[in-house]
Design brief:
The complex is a heterodimer of chains A (449) and B (405). By secondary structure, chain A is α/β, with parallel strands linked by helices. Chain A is 56% helix and 9% strand. Chain A folds into 3 domains: 4-89 and 296-303, Four Helix Bundle (Hemerythrin (Met), subunit A) (Up-down Bundle), CATH 1.20.120.140; 101-283, Rossmann fold, CATH 3.40.50.300; 310-447, Signal recognition particle, SRP54 subunit, M-domain (434 Repressor (Amino-terminal Domain)). Chain A contains 20 helices and 8 strands. Chain B is an alpha/beta fold and 405 residues long. Among the domains of chain B are: 119-189, SRP54, nucleotide-binding domain (Four Helix Bundle (Hemerythrin (Met), subunit A), Up-down Bundle); 205-395, 3-Layer(aba) Sandwich (Rossmann fold), CATH 3.40.50.300. Chain B has 19 helices and 8 strands. The longest helix of chain B is centred in the last third of the chain and has 18 residues, at 302-319. Classes of the chains: A alpha/beta (449), B alpha/beta (405). Chains A and B meet through helix 2, helix 6, helix 8 and helix 9 of A and helix 1, helix 3, helix 4, helix 5 and helix 14 of B.
């Protein structure tokens, strides 16, 4: 659940814990991990280089060095930078003030242009537009029929003129749209290599004739380092207005999109997330940033944790834990903190140190219902009982059980677990004697079954 | 060279000459209506398809040329310029001519790669060295160049490690020697020797093509069918992609062009059933090589991967052996995900070979080094252009040379 990068960063910084101060060299070590993660995600080498330089500057200049959790800080900076590079917020289609709006799809072979055209047409139709699909791929056998088939599936008319020259087809399609009151024309062009001059000239000719408001590059999420070359060449030939990132339902990290963003500066307008024709979604830069880093949505959770965990409170808690003064009241308040942040399993992974426990002990599954019962039990105790569970005798147990709707056995189990936990904390404290500090936000919940 | 490529593009629409030979396809593959839809406009429009091109291209001379060529003859190996290619191919049939093979790679690539973007690894390596001795900085830059060719970090570090070791032994006095070492090691990763496609000794040879969406499975099969037919084999194509719209028709069109029969059912049919039909048809019609197309599928979709296992099982059950070749088609532009793909696909249908497509772009396809290294599956074919003749037998040595050419 917790991804490779955050684990690696965690490890890098764990080595540093107790060192007192974290140096620039330590940040560099962390950034090396980030660099590897980006390269493994297929972000172009040169773009990674620039990116790391920028992040380094920010990290050194910020509070990372003083932070209690430098790993999270570095990740947060990386995430923010990535998100910014990916284009802030979701982008929409630009419509022409004078219909029809023309949208042209272009790209290398096999990136998913035809499928995307149909998905886009379906999407626009649902938005109340009246789109027309135009078959400008006159080369690939079956391409026209493919567009006709998917067009039919989304209920959008398809304009085709067989193997006529694509610019002529485009021109005629505009006229057709005009005559039939269709307000969006989507041009499906043939896949072409960006170094094929004749084919690039052809796509430019189509663009000149059709004057599209949107020129979208279909980019396969699995593309590697070469994405920069292709994107650059397309952008030079037919100035792009956006990118559609396709096949994002696989497990490719999709770093190519970062390369393309860096080279062209155009926004990502949609992502393709499945073979079904409604599998077209708006692009979420933050989610993509997490994906490229191999972290999934954990990053979002880190953000939540940052908001929820009060630094001072966490430090006080840590102190309490170390002193062995931890009581059921603290237990409860920790539990509340955790609950604010969402599904438990995700959160445990976020808590520094917890990932280690979970990695060693994959059977640690947290039962949310069980948590609710524990909470009910503690809430049925008097403040005195919470602070000093040792005073809880048989009659108190019966009262608590009645109040929380549980049984004395469950209360015994909880008290037993709490005692074990305190014992363990003392052991850990002994082990830690000076050498490693207790990770911030260490959470007792991880010992609960 | 370029003209050659360019002409091609326009030849395709003008292909109707091949049409009269369609019958065989028709017998087997059934959906007649959609098929007709595809080829119908061709004969009518082929003239117009070509004529206006000059206007668009602003290169009247170049653009007019193809017109005559195309109209005259396409089926006869794609025009005059292509003769060279055909010769090269013919040379290959003579076998045991590694020289020829090597040259063929160069033939397709060199002239087409001039733009700065296509700066070759060789040039880069040379510029990296330029009068310097091999120090860590140089090695780092080399590693960078490898990574930019989609070689994985691990594999790049392995290669650089080999180079460093060779340098320590004093084997790398200059950049030429360094290239030599890298070429040698790259070829070693790829298994050194070419690993040709295998043919069954008795009973039909069955080759299964698998891969993610859009890598060029159908196109590869189409090209291969043409080549096999030209070599005197009797191939049969099986339209196992019943999912993607018009995939069946795309394969049928390739079949028509090469006069090779295609077994198909309607769109949406169970691909394993189509394969079953295909094997039966091959037996009854005496076809000796069955090329099975499958739908592109992302390796993360377990239902689709199970479907692939089923296809593989049906072949094994019907033929008595697993497909002689199960070929994973990989797009040259694919990055590090290529390895994950290979690992996932081989779980569902044990791979015997790789096909690297679209190598005529600027992508280096370096991920195959990692795939070969991690899985041990050899690369068998490489696609270096749009014409059927552009699908070549893969030669590790030539590939390593090309990475530096």
């Amino acid at each position: 659940m917790l991804s490779s990068l955050s684990q690696k960063l965690n490890k890098t910084f764990q080595k540093l814990r107790g060192k007192g101060r974290i140096t620039e060299a330590d940040v560099d070590a962390a950034l090396r991990e980030v660099r590897l993660a980006l390269l493994e995600a297929d972000v172009n080498f040169r773009i990674v280089k620039d990116f790391i330089a920028r992040v380094r500057e920010k990290a050194i200049g910020s509070s990372v060095l003083e932070s209690l959790s430098p790993d999270q800080q570095v990740v947060a900076i990386v995430r923010d930078e990535l998100t910014e590079l990916l284009g802030g917020h979701a982008q929409r289609i630009q419509y022409s003030s004078q219909p029809p709006t023309v949208i042209m799809l272009a790209g290398l072979q096999g990136t998913g242009k035809t499928t995307t055209c149909a998905k886009l047409a379906g999407h626009l139709k649902r938005e109340g537009k009246k789109p027309l699909l135009v078959a400008c791929d006159i080369y690939r056998p079956g391409a026209i029929l493919q567009l006709q088939t998917v067009g039919q599936q989304v209920g959008v008319p398809v304009f085709e003129m067989g193997q006529s020259p694509p610019p002529q087809i485009a021109k005629a399609s505009l006229k057709y749209a005009d005559q039939h009151g269709l307000d969006v024309v989507i041009l499906d062009t043939a896949g072409r290599l960006h170094i094929d001059e004749a084919m690039m000239a052809e796509v430019r000719a189509v663009q000149e004739v059709a004057k599209p408001q949107e020129v979208l590059l279909a980019l396969d999420a699995m593309t590697g380092q070469d994405a920069v070359n292709a994107a650059q060449a397309f952008h030079d030939t037919i100035p792009l207005t956006g990118v559609v990132l396709t096949k994002l339902d696989g497990d490719a990290r999709g770093g190519a999109i970062l390369s393309v963003r860096a080279v062209t500066g155009v926004p990502v307008k949609f992502v393709g997330v499945g073979e079904k024709l409604d599998a077209l979604e708006a692009f979420h830069p933050d989610r993509m940033a997490g994906r490229i880093l191999g972290m999934g949505d954990v990053l979002t959770l880190i953000e939540k944790a940052e908001k929820q965990f009060d630094e001072k409170q966490a430090a006080a808690m840590e102190e309490k834990l170390l002193q062995g003064n931890f009581d059921l009241e603290d237990f409860l308040s920790q539990m509340q903190e955790v609950k604010k942040m969402g599904p438990l399993e995700n959160i445990l992974g976020m808590i520094p140190g917890a990932s280690r426990v979970m990695a060693n002990n994959p059977s640690v599954a947290v039962d949310e219902k069980q948590m609710a019962r524990v909470e009910a039990i503690i809430r049925s105790m008097t403040p005195q009982e919470r602070r000093d569970p040792e005073i809880i005798n048989g009659s108190r147990k019966r009262r608590i059980a009645a109040g929380s709707g549980t049984s004395t056995q469950e209360i015994n189990r909880l008290l037993g677990q709490f005692r074990d936990m305190k014992k363990m904390l003392r052991q850990m404290q002994a082990m830690a004697s000076g050498k490693t500090k207790m990770p911030r936000g260490f959470n007792p919940m991880q010992f609960m079954r | 060279m370029f003209k050659l490529f360019r002409r091609d593009k326009r030849e395709e629409p003008a292909h109707p000459e091949v049409q009269p030979e369609v019958q065989e396809t028709e017998e087997v593959g059934q959906p007649s209506t959609p098929g007709a839809a595809v080829d119908e406009p061709e004969p009518v429009l082929s003239d117009t398809a070509i004529a206006p091109a000059p206007a668009l291209l602003d290169e009247p001379e170049e653009a007019q040329e193809p017109e005559d060529e195309t109209l005259s003859a396409l089926d006869e190996t794609a025009g005059d310029e292509a003769e060279e290619v055909a010769d090269e191919i013919a040379a290959e049939e003579d076998e045991a001519q590694p020289q020829e093979k090597k040259r063929r790679f160069g033939f397709f690539r060199r002239d087409n790669r001039e733009a700065p973007a296509r700066e070759s690894l060789l040039k880069r390596v040379s510029s990296v060295f330029a009068g310097r001795k091999i120090d860590e900085e140089v090695l780092e830059e080399l590693e960078e160049q490898l990574i930019m060719s989609d070689v994985s970090i691990d594999t790049a570090q392995h290669l650089i490690g080999e180079l460093r070791a060779a340098a320590k032994r004093g084997e790398v006095p200059n950049d030429e020697a360094a290239q030599g070492v890298l070429k040698r090691e790259i070829a070693a990763l790829l298994g050194r020797e070419a690993s040709p496609l295998r043919f069954a000794e008795n009973g039909p040879t069955i080759w299964l093509f698998v891969g993610v969406n859009g890598v060029g499975k159908t196109t590869t099969i189409g090209k291969l069918a043409r080549r096999l037919a030209g070599e005197g084999h009797k191939p049969l194509l099986v339209a196992g992609d019943t999912f993607r719209a018009a995939a069946i028709e795309q394969l049928q069109e390739w079949g028509r062009r090469s006069d090779v029969p295609v077994v198909a059912q309607q769109s949406g049919a169970d691909p394993a059933a189509v394969v079953y039909d295909g094997l039966a048809a091959a037996k009854s019609r005496g076809r000796d090589i069955v090329l099975v197309d499958t739908a592109g599928r992302l390796h993360t979709k377990s239902n689709l991967m199970n479907e692939l296992s089923k296809i593989s099982r049906v072949i094994e059950r019907e033929a008595g052996t697993p497909p002689l070749e199960t070929l994973l088609v990989l797009d040259s532009t694919t990055g590090q995900n290529g390895l994950v793909q290979a690992q996932a696909f081989t779980q569902s249908a044990p791979l015997t070979g790789l096909v690297l497509t679209k190598w005529d772009g600027t992508a280096k396809g370096g991920v195959i080094l990692t795939v070969a290294r991690e899985t041990g599956v050899p690369v068998k074919l490489i696609g270096v252009g749009e014409k059927p003749e552009d699908l070549l037998d893969f030669d590790p040595q030539a590939f390593a040379d090309e990475m530096f050419s």
